[in-house]
Amino acid sequence: MKKIILAGAGLLLILTGCTNVTTEQQSGEQTSEEMQHEENMDMNHENMEGMEEHMDHDNIPSLQASKGTQELVIPPLLEKQKDSDLDYEVVAQEGTTQFFDGSLTNTYGYNGNLLGPTLQLKEGETVKVKVRNELNEPTTFHWHGLEVPGSEDGGPSDVIQPGESKVVTLKADQPAATLWYHPHPHEMTAEQVFKGLAGMLYVEETDEEAPALPHTYGVDDIPLIFQDRLFDENKQLDYKNLMNNDGTIGDVSLVNGTVNPKLTVTKPLMRFRILNGANARNYTFRLSNDASFTQIASDGGLLREPVETDEITLSPSERAEILIDFSAMESDEPIAITDEEGNALLPFDLEYDGEMKKMESISWPDNTTFLSEEEKSLPVTKEIELFGMMDKVTINGKKFDPDRIDLRQKKRVLEVWEVYNKPDEMGGMLHPFHIHGTQFKIISRDGREPAPNELGLKDSVLIEPGERVRLLVTFPEEGIYMYHCHILEHEDNGMMGQVEVY
Ligand code: C2O
Ligand code: CU
Ligand code: CU
Predict the structure, then answer these.
(1) pLDDT for residue 52
(2) Of all atoms in ligand 1, which is nearest to the CA of residue 482?
């Protein structure tokens, strides 16, 4: 264990070890503006036949800034059942939610009206979860990022019919991480998530190995589920009329399902676990005062080392954990998490008592050999080609077929997947690529080392048009797993394949 001393000066000291890496990031990585710009150039071809509906990225609706009138809802923790051989119960159900004064919106939720409770598992723990479908349509329960056998993974073949239930066994045999759960029914994932089905799933450190990170749920350790939604004139989430085949993008920003949220901050040092839970929108998060913050974790757990940054881009399904040290900021300036356009998505009300939390040290696991030279030079054994847009999306030229196994890989064997996002005559578009049942490592992007905040376990990776990304992939369990684009409409349109792990 490497000890990083954290004294009164707050987070600055954590970062003394990685100044050189931060510099690499600046030179090696495009800023989101550059990315956006290229994308705009690529996408700026209208009037192509049959492409009217294609999401023109010049015209992505801006998010409305939060008025800060509602205290942010913190999803409840899912309570363990007493006197039962089952540990938890998760029920998909219909409900209504008041997003706007004077109207109720029909929504879906787990154990409630919207979104779901946070399920916390301890590293190494095994739990039995009863999942029940009280919707009027089939659904599945997928544990995104959890390395469970294919039989428990809740992919599209694992349908729970209305009124039915099933018990799944979840073993958290992987490092502490911020994961999530959501439905995955064949061709209906986008609609069910859009209507509100999603929840956080944490794997927590055992007490012995926990770095001294803030960890009081809802106090200094806050889940933030960012989503955008489009409402019709009746303030309904009428998916069939609102949806776009290239990804449904809205102008209303929700954080944990709250419209116009604000968060009252009661501790000077805060940990935020950010999930991009949108169907299709990419977010670049900044602070309104341009202050820097510290990213500590990616999708699958702690980064090789903490990374100081002033922006984070997350594509749909990606997560990042960050620390913000509010005591280092001027107390009277308004501070908010903003998007790349500067719209305040989550304003903060600072009400901590002024004292920096005394932390003697943060122990950071020694990950300096995150990727060995040997791993980096393994040959490519699986080639994946992402292509298309709208309902013409494919992987390796094919659409999803539940009866076809596309790839096979031996359990616990390391393989290199090269994922290529093939441009088309319109330039192509960004695709977030996700694999079930594994936490992989990014070896390279177009032959270059990934940014420091991608030196951590991942289950989703954003790939630009024309880019080739090499991933080091291993599956600890057996079964059939999906890999797909996590723009949910692309997934539903067949941009998905199956790998059988044996
Ligand atoms: Cu979020 Cu197929 O997964
Ligand atoms: Cu998944
Ligand atoms: Cu896609």
Answers:
(1) 45
(2) 2
